[in-house]
Amino acid sequence: MAAVAPFLVAGLGATPFDDPGEGMHAEIARELMRRPSLPLTLGGVPYLDKPPLLYALLVAAFHALGPGEEPARLVSALAALVAIGATAWLGARLADGRTGIVAGLALGTSLGFFVYGRYVRPEALFVAALALGFALLLVGVRDERRPLAAAGLAAFGLAALAKDPLGALAPPLAVGLALALAGQARPLGRWLPWSGVAAALLLGFGWWIAAERATPGFTWYTVIDNHVLNVVRARHFPDEDVPLGAAEFAVVALLGAVPWVLPAAAMVWRLVRRRAWRDPGETPWVALALWALGVLALSAAAPFRLPHYGLPAYPAIAVLAARGWRELGVRGLAAAHAVLFGVLAVACVLAWSSDGTAFLTEVMGATDVATRKSGAMGAPPPFPPWLALRPLIAATALAFAGGAVALTVTAVARARTAAAYATVATLVFVLPSAAGALGLVSAHRAVESLAVEITRRAGPGDLVAVEGPLENAGALEWYGGRRPLIVDGRRSVLGFGATRPGAANTFWDGARLEREWPGPRRIWLVTARPAEQSVVARLPDPLIVTGAGGRRLYVNR
User: Fold this and answer.
1) Which of 79, 91, 499, 551 could link 125 by a cystine bridge, Cβ 3.0 to 4.6 Å?
2) For residue range 242-259, what is the model confidence (pLDDT) as tens digits?
3) Calpha distance 542→168 (Å, rounded)
4) Structural domain boundaries enclosing 545
5) Number of domains into which the chain is organized
């Protein structure tokens, strides 16, 4: 944790909130801070897509440190450190201290996980609760310590409170299946102590009662629309997210855990060949393998999948990879890593020497939800200038090239410990480039500059409107202090909230904006839609004020 912490927390407040992405979560927490009760709201509209744990922790951070980018991102960074610590502890308890250290460092240097540890979203918190739950439950079951097993189930309840109800239900199924394969599923109380089950249900689902009372229909929306109908792509209230293809998802999920997927996959294959599920001593490892494979396979098989859906598998991959470095043949493993790092170095050099088009459209198009939204609209992707990203690509190429050389040497020398830590060191040199790229993207497409311009020039009676889903400019009110109207934005995470009483005046259609535009009130309009798809094309005499981050600001006079 101490080794990774400086990379996670350095410069967290250096850039404004990314939009879409971070801004809406910060604004939801700010509104919860002003009105500490359910339902959660965004722009005053009920928001039901995520549970309240992240927003409660953001409020606590704002009370302690003041509202801002750094306190908000610190919540995710601390959650990431908890996940790293839990993963290291599990590896140490299942094997030895060195394996635990490698497992923790493997998770902390997995680029997919690292990026979300510096980002205001519930993913890092979700992974932390899952990692903690597996660590406590698996060790509790192995050592027959029911209090530990109960605490693990409670941690899974926190996962449901952080992001998704499946966080409380799916992990115990993976553990139960591993126990059943070893003939150890009974008695149930050994791995499902009643106190742990009660705690998981209370933490994960107890708040649903208050949520249903505050917003009737919440349970139907969460269970049916947001899960069952989402799987079959038949939601009543869809948002603008564009899913990945199965192959795209597999590539993104595996690259996010590179190179640790190599020893993890080899370790899973060894468990399969040995039919390790029949050995009670291997049950914790079989549970981790089932979890990692289940998350990746089921996400790939589902019709709807996003880039971060593979993250819950990363702690299990890290622990399995650490065991792989402990037991597998060092020469072959180090050589495979050297080849992989060499290939990545060459890919980075090719990207660096290009105009950046392929990198931005292919890499960012697969890994970034906002880029996929822009592509679906036909809008140019909101990227920072390629010249700003090129030095980071060059630094990454040098790191991978150095790692390839170091691992080649360790393969020849059969130096197991040196090879494992050469892998860690290579990725440590890549982490600053990942953080830098994230900061450049956030600064470029933040809505802050437009919000500041509106604040500077708008009068007290002026109206501010956002075209499209509010989450695409979620920090507009945060930075501007004015609550925007939403034009043609019902296809969003606020779609269900838009049906609630009192929301009608917040949601305008394009026709209403056309009627109001020539009227006596001055109206400011923020849009990211291409001109031919925007309501601006139908407005009389729109005046463009400025543009930034793929958005334009218009005013009627």
Assistant:
1) 79
2) 888 899 999 999 999 999
3) 51
4) 448-555
5) 1
